[in-house]
Amino acid sequence: MSSHYFRQDFLATPDGAKLFFQVTGDGEPSAVLCDGLGCDGFVWKYLQPVLEAQRRVLRWHYRGHGFSGVPTDDTRIGMEFTCDDLLALLDEAGLKRPVIFGHSMGVQVALELHRRAPHRVSGLVLLCGSHGNPLDTWHDHSLLRKAFPYLKGAVERFPDVARAITRAALKNDVALELSIRAELNKDLLASADFFPYMEHLSRMDPLMFVRTLDSLKDHSVYEHLPRIDVPVLIVGGEIDRFTPVWLSQQMAQRIPHAEYLQVPGGSHTAPLERPGLVNRAVVEFLRQRVEPAFRVQRSA
Fold first, then answer.
1. N or C: which end of the chain has fewer CB within 10 A?
2. Which of 174, 28, 40, 30 is nearest to 105 (CA)?
3. What residue ranges define each of the domains in the chain, with the CATH number in brackets?
4. Helix segments in 105-264, DSSP class H
């Protein structure tokens, strides 16, 4: 049953970062939405309302993303701090064992959280992401791995120039259309659904972007996958170039009893391209797999 519960706030971390979060809806098990790199929630446009109708939903922004700030020491950016932040937010919002949803980089966040605190997770929904080392598989080659040290070095050395270039390059209609045509499915994705990503990325500090990506490049939970003991749904986009679909298939094979959905024609933004298909799969997964296990655990 839907609820009008709404809370929007900031959580101050011990090292000075102020984390934006929003909690809406009511019901259990609750859900937590973990974004991709450089994102502030655009990919959940169609899925979030469906979830809110049945359960409490936590949406939040990583350090240096969206409305969240950065710590006093602005090098404290990356996966280690992201998982610390998420555990603190779960406590702040009173969510004991939510279902963790992850898109793109958020898949690594969700998997790392389960590795660190499996007792805080009742299920995983992993969309268009990888178990780790994303620079080695982007566009199915390692070019980004080789180029990244030079890119990061340039941004660290000339941050003001990087900010000016980023804002100029991303904040126009041509960049939007080129991005959709080159990387996504232009026949399925509406420009208006992708515009919020480009808008956010144009405002994001490139230093925060490259430092977050730096923390991901050598992060992997591959060895942990067979130990995952909660219901898992994996969604892969058929033509995803950022995280090629074989990564989703590989995770589905390694995680015990994982369910797998391949989105026909879906790219890295499959939840926006075929929302009806993805939403139905998520609702059924929660109803058939997560909710029964959650009730058993709660009564134990």
1. C
2. 40
3. 6-299 (3.40.50.1820)
4. 105-116, 143-157, 159-170, 173-183, 191-203, 206-216, 245-254
